[in-house]
Amino acid sequence: MPALVLLGAQWGDEGKGKATDLLGGSVDYVVRYQGGNNAGHTVVVGDQKYALHLLPSGILSPGCTPVIGNGVVVDPSVLLSELSGLNERGVDTSKLLISGNAHIITPYNVTVDKVTERFLGKRKIGTTGRGIGPTYADKINRVGIRVQDLYDESILTQKVEAALDVKNQILTKLYNRRAIAADQVVEELLGYAEKLRPYVADTVLILNQALEQDKVVLFEGGQGTLLDIDHGTYPFVTSSNPTAGGACTGTGVGPTKISRVIGILKAYTTRVGAGPFPTELFDEDGEALRRIGGERGVTTGRDRRCGWFDAVIARYAARVNGLTDFFLTKLDVLTGWEQIPVCVAYEIDGKRVEELPYSQTDFHHAKPVYEMLPGWSEDISKAKTFSDLPKNAQNYVKALEEMSGAPISAIGVGPGRDETIEINSFL
Ligand code: GDP
Ligand code: IMO
Ligand code: MG
Q1: Confidence (pLDDT) at 343
Q2: Predicted local confidence at residue 255, as pLDDT
Q3: Is 415 in the pocket of ligand 1 (CB under 6 A)?
Q4: Is there an atom of ligand 1 within 6 Å of 368 CB?
Q5: Where in the sequence is the active site (predicted)?
Q6: Is 231 considered catalytic here?
């Protein structure tokens, strides 16, 4: 069994943390391949709840090596405080590996993220304000700082000075902010160097050697397919590739090594931040989904926008990721509705459209075409097998599977590890 990818099939917060943790006990490596501490992955183990932002969810499984791949952007202060928070709770984090090629989120990247959003006003993206976009922009502009730069003071100083030359012009002249002193940034970054040193490694070599030895490697995506910089609802997206291809570029493992791509799919839909969302609800059903589903951001504490399941999006995610399976989460949240609307297509300017339109203008005009599926009222949180589910819940899952373009191999019926129905084994 070579490598597997686990990623978000919607706009993030599908339950990737729980799904990763569930598999973490049976895999050798869990690797984050993109994003940074914009992610908020909740893992519930027994009566303990963990909110992970930068660390792979495999960190909670003792036999598993957690890896931060080259495609991730790392805020060292967040990383160190996340590590010490886990250590205080008795979690051993000593196996963590960090790619020397991962880029560092510097304090000026965080500043630029915040001032840019403020400047955009009504047109803002609603970013998490963690410096993600500006850090990826620096990477692409070839003025980024990498983890390995922390170990060469002269190179680090030159790179920070080069990056700030331009940024300070923009900060002072355009945004009316104070200039940032390069030497202070360098001093702060050097202060992290020794603390991070034990973790820094050639993760490309380690992961490829592990695969040669038939070890099992799980790639854990942050965000989701519709937040992908290429395949998402641009410009209302994040600045990396959460889609399956990102697992290759973000880790240095080739696509021929990946045998399974699992899309985590919520039984309804949520989104945080700005951007189009055809099935969004503004009524009491939306309120109820938010309340019952606990739909509040783990990272920013913002209320998540909520809506019904959108099969057009699920089909799109199956296609752009080459999904082999779906893991349907939060089915329990839908308990109690007499009828559950599911979006099967869009109506765009009077025409029925079955697939996600490539034109952003069309997508902004898309109105959901709903099919009503009968609901159920029985508590499903104790269900262990598919046949334990009430008939209408079974039919809801089957209908979603038929519409969505890949088999549903697991179903979440609660936040805990064991609140899962496994249909086809992932390993
Ligand atoms: P992630 O970003 O994809 O890891 O998802 P988040 O952790 O941001 O949000 C998912 C939320 O749903 C978390 O609070 C999880 O504990 C919770 N959760 C995950 N799966 C299930 C499920 O099947 N049922 C219920 N009720 N909650 C779930
Ligand atoms: P997980 O991994 C949901 C959203 C932000 C914003 C947009 C860009 O927990 O699913 P960014 O700070 O990345 O530049 O913000 O992307 N966003 C997420 N939404 N879940 C996430 O992560 C997200 N990470 C970023 O709200 O709309
Ligand atoms: Mg989340």
Answers
A1: 98
A2: 97
A3: yes
A4: no
A5: 13 (proton acceptor), 41 (proton donor), 139
A6: no
Mean pLDDT by 10 residues, the chain (427 residues): 93 97 94 98 94 96 96 98 97 98 98 95 95 98 97 98 96 94 98 98 98 97 98 98 98 97 98 97 98 92 96 98 98 98 98 97 97 98 98 98 97 95 94
* pLDDT at 409 (0 to 100): 98
Looking at all shown ligands, the one closest to residue 42's CA atom is 1
Question: Has 361 been labeled as part of a binding site?
Answer: no
For the 103-198 domain, the top CATH level (class) is mainly alpha
Ligand 1 pocket, 412 CB below 6 A? Answer: yes
Catalytic position from the list 21, 75, 103, 139: 139
Q: What is the pLDDT of residue 1?
A: 65
pTM of the model: 0.97
Query: Which of 55, 113, 123, 223 has most ligand 2 atoms within 8 Å of CB, for mutation?
Result: 223
Would the annotation count 49 as a binding residue? no
Cα-based distances in Å from 313 to 16, 301, 302: 17, 25, 23
Q: Is 41 a catalytic site residue?
A: yes
Q: What pLDDT score does 299 carry?
A: 83
Distance 383 CA to ligand 2 centre (A): 31
User: Ligand 3: distance of its center to the CA of 330 in Å?
Assistant: 14
Does residue 18 line the site of ligand 1, with CB under 6 A? yes
Instruction: Give domain 3-91+203-422's CATH architecture.
Output: Alpha-Beta Complex (3.90)
Ordered by start, the domain boundaries in the chain are 3-91+203-422, 103-198
